[in-house]
Design a protein that fits this description.
Blueprint lengths: L3 H4 L40 E4 L7 E4 L6
Antiparallel strand pairs: 1-2
The structure holds iron/sulfur cluster.
Iron/sulfur cluster binds next to loops.
């Protein structure tokens, strides 16, 4: 489980980026480790799921990928 800020630093499994103008979009790139446009949207995404611990330690996970 991640805090929302931690999740927002991870690559979304649904994200695709295009390296060159004519190249197909892919889930990975050789030019950047983790481009900002491919990162998790956290609770702004419909797939985000919260796990309730307490109000000071809010964590969740990607409902598409499942809890870690
Ligand atoms: S919660 Fe949404 S934006 Fe985040 S990794 Fe999952 S599908 Fe991608």
């Amino acid at each position: 489980m991640y805090t929302e800020d931690q999740a927002r630093q991870k690559w979304c499994p649904m994200a695709r980026v295009q390296e060159d103008g004519n190249a197909p979009a892919a889930n990975r790139t050789t030019k950047a480790d983790n481009p900002g446009t491919a990162r998790c949207l956290g609770s702004d995404c419909m797939a985000w799921r919260w796990t309730v611990r307490d109000k000071r330690d809010k964590r969740g996970f990607c409902g598409m990928a499942g809890p870690i």
